[in-house]
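Researcher: Go.
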Amino acid sequence: AGSKLREVFDKINNLLSGKPVQTEGQAVSVTQHPQGLEFVCYKLAEKFVKHGEGEVSFHHDSAFPIAVVLSGIWELHPRVGDIFLAHLHKKCPYSVPFYPAWKEGTSMEEYQRILGYEVHDSKVEEQDHFLKRMSGMIRLYAAIIQLRWPYGNKQGAHPHGLSYGWRWLAQMLNLEPLADVTAMLLLDFLEVCGNALMKQYGIQFWKTMFFIQKSYIPRIEAVTSSGQMGCLSRLKNFVQKCLQAEEIPLPKGILTPSFWRT
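Model: Structure:
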């Protein structure tokens, strides 16, 4: 509910603003320790990324309430946004976007970690689980860049708005595609903020969609084996439908004005 989200936002904002906040029966304040504020910014940013790789990866719609709170906090407390991006880029290099190359002297285990895989006791997580986590983090990022906290003053620009999404998409399409990962990330990104990018960039956006269909999807196909076609097929269908309809659908779960009255 909108009212619940406002409570969460106010509590986080009060904590970061140095006011005492009640939690688990006691009042806490960042002023209680010289590094209190820095610690809270760090842990809060880390927590938002964890929501992306956990909650959002399983429940796509949850990207929007989480993103709108972070967007508002980012506006008032830019340090949280900076640390959030640092955590996000480390956990999901594709959010830069960046495909880390293997460097001589790097162990395979370490390289897997750099690519974003979780490695425990030399066991690398399964590909499906890895893709799900990356998907959740990209969806959260794509939701953040288009949302603003509705109760802010809105005088300034969004601290990390759609221009960053436009840049991400352009840079993504300049990278040589990877099997599995590229098709999934593009589909996630376009499903979540394609509609917002279409409204903002108009004809330039449609040129990009046409480029994806004619030039980039064949390049993804070239590196994709027959067993990895699922996500690529969904991306193909999505792009084709959008080009035919000359419309990108609104993302599922977007927060409507009526949400804030709940």
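Model: Strands lie at 21-23, 26-28, 119-120, 123-124.
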